[in-house]
Amino acid sequence: MDVIPGAWRRTAAGAGLLSPQGDVAPTIFAEMSAAAVRFDAINLGQGFPDEDGPAEVLEAARDAIAQGANQYPPGRGIPDLRQAISEHQRRFYDLTVDPDTEVLVTAGATEALTATLLALIDSPDDEVVVFEPYYDSYAAVVALAGARLRTVRLRRPDFQPDLDELADVVNDRTRIILVNDPHNPTGAVFSSEVQSVLVRLAQKHDAVIVTDEVYEHLSFDSPHVPIATLPGAAERTLTISSAGKTFSATGWKIGWVHGPAELITAVLTVKQFLTYVNGSPFQPAIAVGLRLPDAYFDDARAALQHKHVLLGDALRTAGFEVHAPQGGYFTVADATALGGADAAAFCRALPERAGVVAIPITAFVAPEHHDEFAGLVRFAACKRVEVLEEAARRLAGLR
User: Fold this and answer.
1) What is the C-alpha to C-alpha distance for residues 50 and 360, in angstroms, rounded to an integer?
2) CATH number of the structural domain spanning residue 313
3) Cα(154)–Cα(200) distance, integer angstroms
4) Quick one: which of 30, 38, 27, 25 has its CA closest to 350?
5) What is the pLDDT of residue 28?
6) Which member of 63, 71, 79, 81 has the greatest number of CB atoms within 10 A?
7) At what angle do helices 343-354 and 28-38 cross, to 10 degrees?
8) What confidence tier does 3 reach under pLDDT thresholds 50, 70, 90?
């Protein structure tokens, strides 16, 4: 019996979800996490913090559980969280968002992204433009939605796209331009020129801009600028974010998407058949988090930037060429000088060789473009300072 129907098998294979034998293909993240356990290595591969978030937010979740917030919340999310999201967007970005019709709470940013693409893709001829390297779920979701993935590569050293290439790739078949800013895995923040060109191209080709802004409060050199704030962008932009990165609560899976009411209704139509709802006691807790004073957000950003400096110094000392991030959880380094011209092989050997786990950037790149990123490795800085200091001591032995 063919347990996986043929169409889904082909889709999953195209998205890299199945091995050549038809089994579920393990991700590089699962492989490297297993290696961390096997070699008692420090796991700087996966991007999750090893510290809890603010006490006020944790306590609010406990209170919500004690007070009975343990059943299904409203399909769009509890009203207070939707109101808090609206207040947050006005407070930080001067964006006006109707909490009743233009906000949808989701099971993390991943569900928001998945529901959005499934809702807006109409035809196999539709194209979704992403920037490469790209977060690994993007290609899988595009494949599941039945669309065509088009990529625009980010160029070293600053990981900005070539604007002529971008203009060539975006066309009248482009349904969605998917923008991750600050960017995972490179740590890049897109320039104002890049943002303006994106809006102009979306207008020209009648495309929807979908933004993944989960690292919005972790932009180091300048305040985050949502694309929806640019002239002419709000009416064609769906903005996605989540609580996981901002409040060190990645396991709670509370995300959201906001934008024009008719687009949000389309996303809700799909979302209700995915998770339906989620995280009832966590939703009021995240409303508390979004209303924390500016000092919380400033301190969180400064603390992570300090960790990136510590990690970057350690990587340079070990012999890597470091690309200092402008935002987000990750530092990218070139391992070529350490024999890491094949970053995938280098990362597979690193847990035993140095007792540290990292992820090759080729995990975020289409196979035909591996050569352009072959020596690059991603390290997560979102760990306790003492963990990063121990990683630095171990990495020093590579020289």
Assistant:
1) 21
2) 3.90.1150.10
3) 19
4) 38
5) 84
6) 81
7) 20
8) very low
